[in-house]
Amino acid sequence: MQSARWTGPLLASTAETLPHGHVYTEPYFFDGISGGEHSPGTSGFYQYGITDNWTAGVQPFFSLGTRKYNHEIGIGDTKLMSQVRLWHFSPEHRHPSVALVTNLVIPTGKYDHLGALKDGHGSGSFAPEVGINAQQYFMLGNGRLLRARINVLQRFPLRTDVNGRSVYGTDAGFSGHAKPGTKTTLVLGSEYSLTKEWVLAFDIESDRWGKTNVVGRETPGGPSLKQTSPPSWNIGVAPAIEYNWSARGGAIFGVWIVPKGHNAPSSITPAIAIQRFW
């Protein structure tokens, strides 16, 4: 167990929790490229060990507009995170670590009342999430370690009021509400320890979104309108390489590649993250 250090792959989250009183930081910097448009931004994990088996934290999101009328920093939605470890891997008892995840997405990003040609960065919807994370270690024939992760997460967005031009495609005079579709995420991640410091990582992620319903009126007293966005899904991969200079610090660089899915565009997102344990 001491022959390898880990940052964690780009997408799959750990099933472990922080020791009581300790802090973990992992800021991400990325550039989402889709349809020829660049969407640089930053996110990350900032967590605290409440007890040895319970970690809480926050995941903020910021983006930088690159188009002519959007050269500004936008605040996206913020996720409040909580993870309770149910089982813990040890060399003596080699069952996988398993944790229960309960999160809440807070709608801090602007999503309606958008100015002409301005982009929104949020959903406007509170969204509880529940899921399970699992993690296991395997000793390979060459004496190196392989670490594997599985994440299953379900998001349940709540209904939100929508006024004016919005991320839901409504125009300036619109007044009504939107009900975003549920989101199901499955992530499979693996890490192979080349040496104590260097690690190869690889993720596969599948995302599925339910239909989104928007109901309201384009003008006061006008006819009621209903707009439905169909369900969608995509599957992407994220190869990456890690360098861990100590047991308390490391960095990862990789690319999240998502081919065109069902009602979902293709994208390529190079990303780098730096993790520290305090």
Give short descriptive properties of this protein:
278 residues; mainly beta; Porin; 12-stranded antiparallel beta barrel
* Main sheet makeup: 12 strands, antiparallel, barrel
Which structural class is indicated by helix and strand composition?
mainly beta
Oligomer: single chain
> What Rg, in angstroms, do the CA atoms define?
20 Å
Form type: elongated
Elements, N to C (H/E): EEEEEEEEEEEEEEEEEE
Q: What is the strand tally?
A: 18
With strands numbered from the N-terminus, the spatial order across the biggest sheet is 1-2-3-6-7-8-9-12-13-16-17-18
Unreliable spans are none
What's the average pLDDT?
A: 93
What is the CATH superfamily?
monomeric porin ompg
Approximately how much helix is present in the residues?
A: under 10%
Separation of termini? Answer: 20 Å
Question: What would you say the CATH architecture is?
Answer: Beta Barrel
* CATH level 1 class label: Mainly Beta
Domain tally? 1
CATH topology: Porin
